[in-house]
Write a sequence for this structure.
C-alpha cells in the first residue's frame, strides 16, 4: 500500500490510544481520557453484574454497542500500527454515538437506586 508524502494522519502513540478509547467522554487531556476509560470499565462491570435484568435481545444490543465502539478503535489501532496510520477521531465519532446509546440503555434498566445514583 502506498500513501502520499503529505498524508496527514500521524502514528498511533500510547497517549493517542488512550484518548481514542476515552473519546466518548472527556478527551481533552490524557487524564480525562483515563477517567473516561475507567467509567467505561465501570459500565461494563455493571452490565455483567446486573445481566439478570436484561432480556436476551437487550443483552445482544448492549454487547453489540460495546463491540462497535471497542472494535472500531482496536481494529483501527492494529491496522495503524501494522500498516499505515488510518485511525483518526472523526472515524470514532459515529461509534461513540452508538456507545452513548448503549450506556443510556444500561442506565435506563438499572433498578437499584444506589447503583443508579452512583452511575
Amino acid at each position: 500500500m502506498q500513501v502520499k508524502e503529505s498524508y496527514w494522519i500521524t502514528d498511533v502513540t500510547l497517549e493517542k490510544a488512550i484518548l481514542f478509547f476515552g473519546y466518548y467522554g472527556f478527551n481533552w487531556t490524557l487524564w480525562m481520557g483515563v477517567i473516561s476509560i475507567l467509567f467505561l470499565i465501570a459500565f461494563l462491570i455493571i452490565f455483567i453484574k446486573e445481566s439478570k435484568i436484561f432480556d436476551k435481545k437487550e443483552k445482544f444490543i448492549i454487547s453489540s454497542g460495546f463491540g462497535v465502539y471497542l472494535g472500531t478503535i482496536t481494529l483501527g489501532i492494529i491496522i495503524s500500527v501494522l500498516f499505515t496510520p488510518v485511525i483518526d477521531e472523526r472515524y470514532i465519532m459515529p461509534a461513540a454515538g452508538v456507545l452513548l446509546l448503549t450506556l443510556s440503555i444500561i442506565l435506563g434498566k438499572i433498578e437499584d437506586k444506589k447503583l443508579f445514583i452512583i452511575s
